[in-house]
């Protein structure tokens, strides 16, 4: 059974970016632009792949440091070009491990704001996840981790 997200447990982040929605969209969907995801100075040893269609997946080699590296990505659930991207966060044999029954759902919404873009990011925990499991996810600092990752995007696009 597909997970639901009525309880609205998770995190929300909002950022204003100094780039038009077209460029922010490209940063989220083009393998050549997804380098912002990595920590500065870290180079992945495996190529980033993007199959931008509902049911398609993106995978990228996340490099935190020399000792901590893993595959991450997602499976696209909704695509509204240059406006909205919804994906189940995770990768097969990666982190988080993609689990269609307990998928964490990420939503990126883009809106033009002046010459830039307002980006609202939301990560939802499925209703089927126990309160204990949800507490573990929220307690491990996913808000801080996603905040740092998205701040790299903000910095990259401000250049």
Automatic annotation (TrEMBL):
Pfam families in the cross-refs: AHSA1
Activator of Hsp90 ATPase homologue 1/2-like C-terminal domain ranges (all copies): 18-157
InterPro entries registered for this protein in UniProt: ASHA1/2-like_C, START-like_dom_sf
Family that this chain belongs to: Belongs to the AHA1 family.
Annotated protein name in UniProt: SRPBCC domain-containing protein
């Amino acid at each position: 059974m597909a997970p639901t997200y009525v309880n609205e447990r998770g995190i929300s982040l909002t950022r204003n970016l100094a780039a038009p929605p077209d460029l922010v969209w490209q940063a989220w969907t083009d393998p050549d632009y997804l380098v912002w995801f990595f920590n500065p100075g870290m180079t992945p040893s495996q190529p980033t792949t993007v199959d931008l269609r509902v049911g398609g997946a993106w995978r990228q080699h996340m490099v935190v440091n020399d000792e901590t590296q893993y595959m991450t990505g997602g499976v696209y659930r909704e695509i509204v070009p240059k406006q909205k991207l919804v994906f189940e966060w995770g990768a097969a044999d990666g982190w988080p491990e993609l689990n269609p029954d307990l998928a964490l759902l990420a939503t990126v919404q883009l809106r033009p704001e002046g010459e830039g873009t307002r980006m609202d990011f939301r990560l939802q925990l499925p209703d089927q996840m126990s309160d204990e499991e949800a507490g573990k996810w929220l307690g491990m600092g996913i808000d801080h981790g996603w905040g740092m990752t998205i701040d790299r995007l903000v910095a990259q696009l401000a250049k």
